Amino acid sequence: MYSRIIGTGSYLPAKTLTNFDLEKIVDTSDEWIVSRSGIHERHIAADDETTSDLAMHASRRAIEAAGIAPNDIDLIIVATTSPDKTFPSTACILQDKLGITSGGAAFDMQAVCGGFVYALNTADMYIKCGQARTVLVVGAEVLSRMLDWNDRTTCVLFGDGAGAVVLQASETPGILAGKLHSDGRHHALLRADGNIRHGAVAGEPFIKMEGQAVFKFAVTVLSSVVEEVLAGTGMKGSDIDWLVPHQANIRIIEATAKKLGLGMDNVVATVAQHGNTSSASIPLALDTAVRDGRIKPGQTLLLEAIGGGFTWGAVLLRY
Ligand code: ACO
Q1: N or C: more exposed end of the chain, with fewer CB within 10 A?
Q2: Catalytic residue among 43, 246, 249, 274
Q3: How many domains does one find in the chain?
Q4: Of the residues 113, 121, 155, 249, which is catalytic?
Q5: Half-sphere exposure of 275 (CA within 13 A, CB side)
Q6: Which domain, by its residues, includes 275?
């Protein structure tokens, strides 16, 4: 038994914030942001848009592309680090917004930017062990609300958005391999400390990052996890049609592609237009390349991501 992606969808809030807009807010420049990260612009959710709203739009598109009814879904996993509420889960709120009443399970997955790969791998396990047949896997974020707009080292990097896939049990090969890792010793390098105590938020609510340390760690572990996943299947970098990486920084993406022996013609890169949308970045990139015709049925895709924690992982699949 395999699990296969049978539909993808994504959603970006209408408002865009360009590097030139940011030049008016903090001491930065388009030249610095582009040369260090590859980002030109990012989307920012409207004040009344929540993570579950973004997830709902992306999910409806994925469900439509899959040609299924919402009630066919028997598991929803939402990867997010910017949930609507402390509880209930964004996945349960999304289940309601999609009108799903079939009683399937729904839960959130918190692995920061590693979230979508974590969620996809988990969904694959549920299908392979027979606990679910049709799974909606979503990455959705409004990280702009966790940014200190006076901190130029972080506020220029992130954006909002959502992406979704419908994963279904299949006898035809779909997900071929996957591997997840974490190393909590590095939890302080990338974090948002705020937490709720007695009705008030205690601690710094904004994202803090040791950029250079994150960069070095990312390049090292992403290269090793993609090799690990490929080794398990006997495949090589040259067997991959598309690398669909987490979109944090074009230099990290280029380094990972190079290690695999892939040119940028084999990489789906949306970081220039989306910025780092954390757990939403891979399904956003995937849906972009499916809808513009680059990714075709039968092709081999490698998805990889790293996020705060640190968490990291990769999934190899036949689309
Ligand atoms: N505009 C202008 N100058 C800036 C800005 C800015 N927005 N931000 C920092 N600078 C300055 C710094 O103050 C520093 O100045 P100084 O030399 O006078 O001290 C200089 O630019 C260089 O700063 P560095 O931090 O050394 O720049 P670096 O080349 O490392 O690039 C960056 C920074 C883009 C953050 C890079 O380190 C990076 O991409 N790291 C990885 C980030 C990442 O992938 N995060 C996501 C992980 S996934 C998740 O879970 C969220």
Answers
A1: N
A2: 246
A3: 2
A4: 113
A5: 26
A6: 176-318
